[in-house]
Amino acid sequence: MKAPRGTRDILPPDSCLWNKVEGKIREKYRIYNYQEIKTPIFEETELFVRGVGGTTDIVEKEMYTFQDKGGRSITLRPEGTAPVVRAYIEHKLYGKSQPLKLYYFGPMFRYERPQAWRYRQHYQTGVEVMGGDSPFIDAEVILLGIEILKEFNLQNWVLHLNSIGCSQCRADYKNELIEFLKDKPLCRDCESRLERNPLRVLDCKEGNCQKLLEGVPLVTDHICQECGDHFRKVQEILSVCGLDFRLDPFLVRGLDYYTRTAFEVKTKDLGAQDTIFGGGRYDGLSEEIGGPRAPGMGFGLGMERLLLAMKQEGQERGIKSYLDAYVVAVGDKQLLQGWNTLREVRKAGFSADMDLMGRSLKSQMKGANRSGARYALIIGEEEAEEGFLQVRDMSSGEQDKVQKEDLVKYLAWGKEEQGK
Question: Which of 48, 237, 307, 382 could link 139 by a cystine bridge, Cβ 3.0 to 4.6 Å?
Answer without folding.
Answer: 237
